[in-house]
C-alpha cells in the first residue's frame, strides 16, 4: 500500500464538481454503492478521505487516531518497544478481567 503522501490514484472533477472514487481507494476503504465518505481537512492543507463513520461512533476517535498516525510519522523516534516489566505489570492489573466487547452497555453506562 502507498504511503499517505504518495498519490496512488487520481480522478477528474466533472463540470458539476463530481468524481468517481477510484477502485483501489474504494477497496481500501471498503466502500460500496450508497456508502458515505468523509473528508478531513488537516491544518497543513492536506485532505484525507475515509469511510464515514456510524453516527454511534465517538466523533473524536478518528481525530485522535489521525493525531497519533501523524505524530508517529513525524517523530518515529518516540515509538518504543514496551518493556517486559511494563508488560508484566499490565498483565497483573488486567489478567483476570473478563470483557465482552459485543455485550450491550448497562443503562447507567450509556
UniProtKB/TrEMBL annotation:
GO terms for molecular function: DNA-binding transcription factor activity; toxin sequestering activity. InterPro entries: PrlF_antitoxin, SpoVT-AbrB_sf. Pfam families: PrlF_antitoxin. It comes from the Bacteria. GO terms for biological process: regulation of cell growth. This is Regulator PrlF. The lineage of its organism: Bacteria, Bacillati, Cyanobacteriota, Cyanophyceae, Gomontiellales.
Amino acid at each position: 500500500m502507498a504511503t499517505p503522501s504518495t498519490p496512488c490514484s487520481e480522478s477528474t472533477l466533472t463540470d458539476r464538481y463530481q468524481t468517481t472514487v477510484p477502485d483501489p481507494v474504494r477497496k481500501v476503504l471498503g466502500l460500496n454503492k450508497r456508502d458515505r465518505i468523509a473528508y478531513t481537512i488537516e491544518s497543513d492543507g492536506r485532505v484525507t478521505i475515509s469511510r464515514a463513520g456510524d453516527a454511534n461512533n465517538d466523533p473524536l476517535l478518528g481525530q485522535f487516531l489521525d493525531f497519533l498516525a501523524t505524530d508517529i510519522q513525524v517523530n518515529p523516534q518516540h515509538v518504543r518497544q514496551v518493556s517486559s516489566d511494563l508488560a508484566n505489570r499490565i498483565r497483573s492489573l488486567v489478567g483476570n478481567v473478563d470483557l465482552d466487547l459485543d455485550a450491550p452497555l448497562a443503562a447507567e453506562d450509556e
